[in-house]
Design goal:
Elements: H1 2-16, H2 21-52, H3 55-73
Amino acid sequence: MTAAMIAAMVRHVRSRRAWERADVIQFIVVVLPFYVVLVVVAAGLVYAMLITENWPWLAATSGFTAAMLLWFFWPEREAK
């Protein structure tokens, strides 16, 4: 799942403009660790909610996460 998210993020950035050296450094230093932490925290929350069988919070967290990922990775329409 993480590899698919990273691949989608790379396609998202690549579609806007060509990669430059500063973009690659920023991606490695800022963006990649942020998403690694996000995935680990989300996995920990889901695991904790599954253990405690807290289904309403699990549903709310999963729905919010899915909505956030769809909003971020949804392809932008080009102006004609």
